[in-house]
Amino acid sequence: MSADQRIQRSEEEWRRELSEEAFRVAREGGTEPPFSGEYYHHDAAGEYYCVCCRQPLFSSHHKYDSGTGWPSYYQPLEQEAVLERADTSHGMVRTEVLCSRCDAHLGHVFSDGPEPSGLRYCINSTSLGFKPNDQ
């Protein structure tokens, strides 16, 4: 992604644009409670996008029920849509997933997913929006 496509806003601007919960999760790296998210049991066909910048991130075709309590995908729409970085918070070693356009915290990726990737992108519903295929 080129520098001119990146979206940068101040904390105050993000607070004005997002709900309190979306700001806590997407901008401060929070996590929604398991089994509580809007998209956990969501099965409509379409694309999930970043709640902050609307960049398309995941497809319903790659979504599956991991049983973990969060929407799970075995791959992003495009690998360039997400960034990954080491996360050692909460006494764990994990890989955080961020939106490549605005650095929103999306969730984490684990290596216990289904084929073909073997990955589980465990993503907070609060960090996502949804666009049905028919729109």
Class from helix and strand fractions: mainly beta
Low-confidence stretches: none
Specify the overall morphology. globular
CATH top level class name? Mainly Beta
Spatial ordering of strands, largest sheet: 3-4-8-7-6-5
How much strand? 25-35%
Rg, nearest Å: 14 Å
- Major sheet: size, sense and barrel closure? 6 strands, antiparallel
| Count of separate DSSP helical elements | 2
Give the number of domains: 1
Q: What's the CATH topology label?
A: Metal Binding Protein, Guanine Nucleotide Exchange Factor, Chain A
Strand tally: 9
Order of helices and strands: HHEEEEEEEEE
**Which whole number gives the mean pLDDT?**
94
CATH superfamily: Peptide methionine sulfoxide reductase
What's the oligomerization state?
A: single chain
CATH architecture: Beta Complex
How far apart the termini lie comes to: 26 Å
Helix content: 10-25%
